[in-house]
Every structure is written in structure tokens, then in C-alpha cells.
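User: My collaborator sent over this chain with a note saying "see what the structure looks like." That's all I know about it. Can you take a look?
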Amino acid sequence: MDALKTMWETVPPATPEDLAGARRRLLNGMHTRRRVVTAPRLLVAAGVAAAATITPLIIGTGTSAYAVTKSPDGTITVTVNELRDPTGLQADLGAAGIKADVTFLAPGTRCTDGRFAGVDPAYGGSPVTGPDELRSLMNELRSPKVTRPISIREFRISPKYIEPDETLVLEFRDNHDARVPWRLGAWLAPAGTSVKPCTPIEDAG
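Assistant: Without extra context I'll predict from the sequence alone. Here is the result:
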């Protein structure tokens, strides 16, 4: 303690210019942090960090409409910039090991019910009545665990929740909003069953 006191006494007092400079540096640092801590920048930073730690395999034709990225940990990241070429996206998911059925829908529409039999009540079950029931379903059912959003144009698929020969049914609806360009419905259809083609109808919800 005496040594620290002696060392502290040898430090010269700060001048007004030193204090002003320190205040400027502190304020500049605060402004910088405010600019950085925004959702888009955080997403970019997360993407840069991920790119630095993994060597993904890009599957697809190079089109800017979408990209399918398979990571060494087995997860698959899907980026959808434009709702076009659903059969191409479906084929690229197949190349990544995901049996999928992909549909792109116009704004204000949805597919008719009963296209397939879901593996759990996430599809075709009774309506959720409240947040507690929703949390319970998210914990208990497999279908909601297969896909997770990453950003407004990306979501991640976890194949570990998909049983052999099950189909991942993906319904994208154009949202006509740059902030949320599309909405996604994702469910699992059982192995050995078929998924009927989507018949679009007006969505009253």
C-alpha cells in the first residue's frame, strides 16, 4: 500500500487541457458505441465473426435471390433476398441434405389448410390461446425448433430436429415491407407422406 501511495504521488496533476482532451475522448467513445449498437450493425458484426470462425459450404447457382450455406456444425443458413425461384431453393436445400417443399406467396395470401399431416400440432392443431401455451408448445414440439430467425432475411435450419425422410415445409409470404420483407411458416411433414401443392387463398388474418 505504501508503495502504491508513493507511486501515485509521483504522477503529476492533470492540466485543464488534459482534462478537456480526456472528456472529448470519452464523449467520442460514447457516440461510437451508440452507432455500433444497432440491430443492423450487430448483425453485420455477428456475420463477420461467424465468417472468421467457420468455413461454410455455399450451395446454389450464385443467384442473388437466395443462398444456402452449410456450416461444419451441420446447421444450414438460408438467406432469401427475393421471393423468386422456389424450385431452385428447394433443390439447393435438397443438395444440403434437407428434403423440403418451398412455396412463395403473394401479399395477403396463404396456402389452404390440410396440405399435409404435420408431425405435431404446430401445423393443423388448435389455435394457441396465450403466451404461456405458446412457450409450452415451443419447448415441447419439434417443428418450431427446426428453424430459427437470424436477421430479417436469414434463418437457420437445425437438421438434428428432423427425422429421416421428413419434409420441411416452408411457406414464404411477401410482406411488401423492406423492414420485414417476408414472413415464413415452417413445419414438418411425416416420413412416407406427401405434401400437396399450395392453393393460394386470401388470408383474412
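A starting point for your reply to your collaborator: The chain has one domain: 54-202.
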